[in-house]
Known about the structure:
The chain is mostly beta strands. It has helices spanning 7-12, 33-41, and strands at 2-4, 16-18, 57-61, 65-73, 76-80, 89-95, 98-104, 110-119, 126-133, 135-141, 148-158, 161-164, 172-173.
Amino acid sequence: xIFSITAGxxxxxxxxxxxxxxxxxxxxxxxxxLIGARWAELGGANGKLGCPxxxxxxxxxxxxxxxxxxxxxxRGQMAWSPKNGSKLVVAAYSTNGYAYFDWKSTDRFWxxxxxxxxxxxxxxxxxxxxxxxxxxxxxxxxxxxxxxxWNVKGCDTGVFxxxxxxxxxxxxxx
Length: 174
């Protein structure tokens, strides 16, 4: 904490305390925007992801097209993936022997979600359908100590099959 006292205030016995910006979160870096709001919903510094370890960074798909932003935390990552919904934030984290993936909130309701994951123990990974809506959560028991990489996309079902979003979300590791 930084303390500052001016001569005039010192004479009256008043002390002015200027706290650093991160004091409210207890973290050296404070998340902001949609990632910050979702991080707070997930418990903030004492929650599922812990404190941020990096600032938000831009993510480019295939090295060219801007796709959104990603931020790393003590126990995982979060990403804002606007190509899949202007407010869509995905989060991956590991705790108590499980890897979790959480997504919220798409701009619309989908009939189902396709969730994909890979890990060092399973480089081919897996994919599973989940009940639709505008949010969801998936998990698996940890089988590796190097983390799981996750992403998701929404789909509508029809008589002749599913019609899915053209892009997967930005991947996150937890």
